[in-house]
UniProtKB/TrEMBL annotation:
<dbReference type="Pfam" id="PF13561">
    <property type="entry name" value="adh_short_C2"/>
</dbReference>
<protein>
    <submittedName>
        <fullName>3-oxoacyl-[acyl-carrier protein] reductase</fullName>
        <ecNumber>1.1.1.100</ecNumber>
    </submittedName>
</protein>
<keyword id="KW-0560">Oxidoreductase</keyword>
<dbReference type="InterPro" id="IPR002347">
    <property type="entry name" value="SDR_fam"/>
</dbReference>
<dbReference type="GO" id="GO:0004316">
    <property type="term" value="F:3-oxoacyl-[acyl-carrier-protein] reductase (NADPH) activity"/>
</dbReference>
<dbReference type="InterPro" id="IPR050259">
    <property type="entry name" value="SDR"/>
</dbReference>
<dbReference type="InterPro" id="IPR036291">
    <property type="entry name" value="NAD(P)-bd_dom_sf"/>
</dbReference>
<comment type="similarity">
    <text>Belongs to the short-chain dehydrogenases/reductases (SDR) family.</text>
</comment>
Amino acid sequence: MDLGIAGKWALVCGASKGLGFGCAQALVNEGVHVVINARNADVLAQAASRLQAQGAGGKVQVLAVAADITTPEGRAAVFSAAGGPGHAFDIVVTNAGGPPPGDFRNWDRDAWIKAVNANMLTPIELIKATVDGMAERGFGRIVNITSSAVKAPIDILGLSNGARSGLTGFVAGVARSKLAAGGVTINNLLPGKFDTDRLAATIGNAAAKSGTSVEEFRRAQQAQIPAGRYGTAEEFGAICAFLCSMQAAYMTGQNVLADGGAYQGTF
């Protein structure tokens, strides 16, 4: 199915690997030009090379901007990328690594501010910088990568639960503003357990604490998922690309859960 977005420009954050890379890859496969962002310049350059190699026979442009998107300076670097579209992004995929787990009793104000800045305020700044231009051009897609913890909070992920829920509430309002009539949709994409480097590190730590092998821990965890496995970054990217498509024009303000059926609620 042609998603109707070839030739558009997209900003994809946290795109050097994992779910962010999966989203960038899916968009490039649809003929979308991308500006990819992450903090590690070397890893990001490798990601850009991979994307450029598969980009519609060289017709797709891939620009890499190594910067901390959670800072004003990082956002300025992204928006001023040489040869890039400036503020004229048609698609924005916000993505930042989740804050660390722990006991809420041990988190001070600085820990909370850091989590809120990365997982709530930064996406809002990116939305604020791009949506009016999108509305003027009559097309815009914003996808915020959040977490399944927004639907089913996890006790040790209180920083993430709080910050991402704040973003979810904000999006619920702004997505239903006059922007919707201007052809701009804003949706959240909520990942469950996907087979990424981040998950591998989490599993390694959990397995060591429980005294089991990584393989045993993985099997036990996957057995609790109705799909019987972890998701892949490619699957996640395909969902993201659909939310960015012309076909998804009537979807806005939604929280799209991709977790293999792990969430057991009705709504």
